[in-house]
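Dear all,

This email documents one entry for the complex benchmark we are building for the journal club exercise. For each entry we list the sequence lines for every component of the assembly. Then comes the predicted three-dimensional structure of the complex as a token string, followed by one or two observations. Please use this as the template for your own entries, and keep the labels exactly as they appear.
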Amino acid sequence: MSPDRRQFLGWGAAAAVTAAGAALAPGLRLIELAQARSPEEAASALQRWGLLIDITKCTDCDVCVTACSKENGWTGHGRPETDPQWIRKVSLRDKRTGYAQTLPLMCQHCEHPPCVDVCPTGASFRRDDGIVLVDKHTCIGCRYCVMACPYGARSFVHETVSGQKSDVPRGKGTVESCTLCVHRVDRGETPACVEACNRDGGKAMVFGDLNDPSAEIHRRLRAEPSTQVRADLALNTGVRYRGL
Amino acid sequence: MARVHYREIEGDSRGFYALLGALGALILAGLGASWYMEHNGHYVTGMSNRIVWGMPHVFAIFLIVAASGVLNVASIASVFGRELYKPLARLSGLLALTLLAGGLAVLVLDLGRPERLIVAMTHYNVKSIFAWNIFLYTGFYAIVAVYLWTMFERRMNDYNKPAGLFAFVWRLILTTGTGSIFGFLVAREPYSSALLAPMFIIMSFSFGLAIFVLVLMAACNWTGRALGDVVLNRLRNLLGVFVATVLYFVAIHHLTNLYVARQHDVERFFLWEGGIYTALFWFVQVLTGGVLPLALLFGTTSRRALAAAAVCVILGGLAQLYVLVIGGQAYPQLMFPEKEVSSSFFDGVVAGYAPSLPELALGVGGVALALALTAVALKVLPFLPRSLADGDVDSAAA
């Protein structure tokens, strides 16, 4: 069936506007290109996902922590010693001067993660794009990764879990930690903590591709001083701090 | 050379069955504790996200380390050709197997997901020391089994020396692996030392021999077999050398740390301000497990003193592992130098830990399993010589 005249004119107008837009404003996209990977597509080493946390802007709030807990479905049972914490606010106070700071601490998504090295079954693994994860099906709960992590970033699931999120598998007797909201990243979104910090917090967190020269995180790391926690271990963390 | 005559223990006395019954009850308690921990989750134990390895690991590592070291007696006979130790070699091999079984049982039953043991057997991360250890432990079983075969089967006797040499080298590597579980943890200041591997080896010699002495004395005493002073005095001197060497390694470890400014806080914690860990270090590990046994071993010649020294070595060894494993985790990880650190995750503070009853029951259950397997094996196969009286071993050694 051939298109009717009105439809034909409509296409023509749309094509003309698009062509004009392309000619007048190169680089401007009417519709943002989809960054999400299809489920079949493997994570690529062309990307290195990371975070930049500007602790000069980090306030006393904990919106990043509550957003993470809500997004990933980890909640406490009123037992702080054994309850999981994928991200926590750490308070620092200089021993000499008393200068106080606060910062969020989570899995630092190392390029050379000690947790991955020590895991006997390979359940702890690093994706090609730099995200460090635990395969909940092959974790035997030996906790050696918790021993090896320099950042105390990992939690052992000490009791039965309920109300799990479909995107975030968890299980009693296995180890878990920040996934950099891998399910959101794979959909082309930013981690929940970053979103919450930029919406309700001090706008201290930037997420992006460390390899992409046009990404804000890359530009800022190029222009501003930043540090890695325990840089002496040469783990090349994906999470960087400014103002530490 | 006079032949050594071995014979099974009769194992039909009331005492034997009472022993098996008591050990069986402890094994059941251990299994029950494990079920309780797995069913509820580890929050019912004293362990936490800061102390992820608790009392079960102390027992498991102690038993695994001792299993490697207890084979020393057999090695001295077949690798180093000391005939006096030959009548003891079978028991030495047996204890190596049973202690390892007890230790591994505790380790596995404390896993978050023990039912996934098959995953550990089928998925290997070749860079993991744990994965190496799975291979080293299972290999140890096979090698010691063959080694025992070369002792039991006369036609295989010619292969005893190569088998013994292979087992000797294997267990040195095995205990290197056990020590390196901690030695390679670069992110924790109390560990992260290549010294831990050789220290674990000498600890294995000491703990293993202490257990061997006690089992040998008990087995001979309870079955009415002669046990002469020649054998016991040799073991006494050997144990003394091992205890002194463990003390030497402990001293070197701490002295090295004391010299390194970065490690000063760690040393202040363990040697001075660490509360229970400091107390355990000085009073149980060093005094009870080191100084006192040396006095007992070299100050007297009585058998009771030897047995008491062996008990002290075992207590000191458990304390040493408690201080290392649990104290090493309790000490806060250094992330922000020159800063006071605090958080809801107990950063910057010494983590609290009190061993719970289920953890203790699981650990003791592993010891009971090792001893029960030993008792049953002694009844089934001729592991023990009929006599270790001075005249008999002298002629055997002649």
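Observations: Chain B touches chain A through 49 residues (CB under 8 Å). The mean pLDDT of chain B is 95.
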